[in-house]
């Protein structure tokens, strides 16, 4: 295996009300709103990015929030659960914080790890897990200190309509290593420190339906632009059709749908989110690619205003 991804680059999901989306991920989870832009294919819809202070790959969750988005159904062909990693000893803090905002939490375990599972305001399934690996956050917001803050992704649980095919892609194309299996899940690990653990339920899942509260795609990390070309060739040589390389302003992307139904992206680590605005000002202004700048006034008029707000639980 010549190419190995270090893990998840980002995860992108659908949502409804944009302000509610910001309130949940910035106000409650304490992530930084990194980028306020638009869906390049549908400029009437926001594209919002949340992550750590720098927007490091492995920390980034993104949303297409649009009022009136139909509710989706989580199922096969999707990321079923998005896992976040927090510092050891912080799960009790997070349980208390989530419950203070009337968010129902459930404790569960997989592969001898304890998880705190909950849903966002749209029903997207999330979980927190404590791990030593990965640097602590340098971003603190809304009463969440850096020693309790989310580090980034722990990984994901992939719901597949063909688990064997999905697991084959993880191993044979992406370079994950299988490190465990029990009666319900197989576990895979990449060489990175965060976003590096992927669990696949062994049972086939009925097909999900895209919409608010579901994941659109999961992106895996490519080190640089040169390696990105190698990734595209590798995926195609394995028999999958890929898109051309697409410039997404903050990374380059290729997409392919693996045989378990999940839309996979491979995204470059560079150039990053300070590509078009200063690092200290990330997320404050609506950023548009140059071809949309002539339409800025109309685009801004069609988008609901949003702001990062400090929220107080019970």
From TrEMBL:
PROSITE patterns membership: VOC
Oxidoreductase in keyword set: yes
Annotated signal sequence range: none
Keyword flag Oxidoreductase: yes
GO molecular function: dioxygenase activity
Domain VOC per the UniProt entry, residue ranges: 7-131, 152-269
UniProt entry keywords in alphabetical sequence: Dioxygenase, Oxidoreductase
Protein name per its UniProtKB record: Ring-cleaving dioxygenase
Pfam families in alphabetical order: Glyoxalase
